[in-house]
Amino acid sequence: MPQTSWISRLPLGALRRVPGLSPGSRSLHRHLLLWLLLPQLVLWLAAASFTYQLADSYANRAIDASLSTASRALARQVKPSGSGLYIDFPRAAQDIIEADPDDRVYYMVSTPPGEFILGNSQVPPPPPLGEPRLGQPYLYDGKIHDPSGDGRREVNVRVVALYLAYGEPGRPQRMLVQVARSRASREELAGQILIDTALPLSGLIVLMSIIVWGGIRGGLAPLARLRSVVESRAPNDLAPVRLEAAPEEVRGLARALNALLAEVRENVDSQKRFISDAAHQLRTPLAGLKSQTELALASAAVGADPELHARLQRVHESATRSAHLVSQLLALARAEPEAAMAQSRTRFDLQRLARDVAAEQVPRALAAGIDLGSEDADAVSASLCVLGNAMLIREALVNLIDNAIRYAGRGASITVGVHAQGADAVLFVEDTGAGLPEADRERVFQRFARATHEGNGCGLGLAIVREIVERSSGSVVLEPVQPQGLRAVVRLPRVG
What is the pTM of this model? Predict the structure, then answer.
């Protein structure tokens, strides 16, 4: 019987502990979002880098063109005069060239191999060129000490070098014209182009991320619905899962889950059939054994061997206890969810049922030396109706009264009563016995759990009561009674 209880609670518990689906596992939603957004981030960085390089290249082209034009214009101001050079470069023109403090322009005119003529002598020389072509501008990067500061700060500059020839035909000479310009304007232009390109691209990435996030949520919604369907089920609900509108992958998961549920249901049903069949088969021989022991005890009572009488008494008690156990097993099988749902639910008067069951149990209580009665049974006129299976509720009440008779002790009294409390009908069975410790009041509702080894109970009575009451949408608890005793309280929803 414990196996049936364990298997009946297997499906949801097993599903929640499937390997690879533990609570610590990675979220599929986050996993997909990461692998879809990570490439976008990489592409965004690559696009930003490419855009900056492209902007820097175009800025270089514009600056290189202006530097080449400036070098030629400056070269035109240096004119050969006999064996020397005439420089027509007024101070006003120099001030115009050097007017912008953020975008400084430096120039130098010299005659290789290094005779300075005009300008700023700090302009970096061109790299080794071998035999340079005359009139061909050469562009390169360099550094120059800023003369406007303390002379120690270096400025990155873009430089053009232009070699020109002058002098008499028999004595040709070369002149080097260099114009340098700081890279501040070029870097500013490239940065502005990058910002103007990156901002719309960033907005596009954010919009795409939102779309991807929404798509993932929509794509995984069937999984969320499947999880909700499984989590909302009762532990004993083994009906197939239906997700016809879900994608093929989720339908495949649902089919696999339904196959598992079908196997578990078949396993549970086979064990329940075995227990029920075994209990039915045992009931008849045990009843016969009990009758035979009663006859043997009656015969042995007349001058028989006392030892033989004691042995027969123990056999009779064992037979009685076994018959009671079989009866309880059959009651538990009837109270199982599938069996309970298969039986009809009707509207019935709980007060009348309680009075009838109490009256039926009076002879047994008197035999045990216990006073059993109903609370104000003669004064009750109004009915108190509930919806459920009257046969199962009767079984639950019989088990409560039987439990009280077995453990209250000789000389105790038992009271059965029903009253309304809000939207509930409250049924109680109260005894004046020794009571039950608080630590055992919940444990005794478990199957085969007993709070004491006294008596001949089998530990199934209260388990059957809870099974029946919960399947009737009710609840049952044990409460202490002052000065001593125990009260079993059953609450069931009332119907008009």
Answer: 0.44
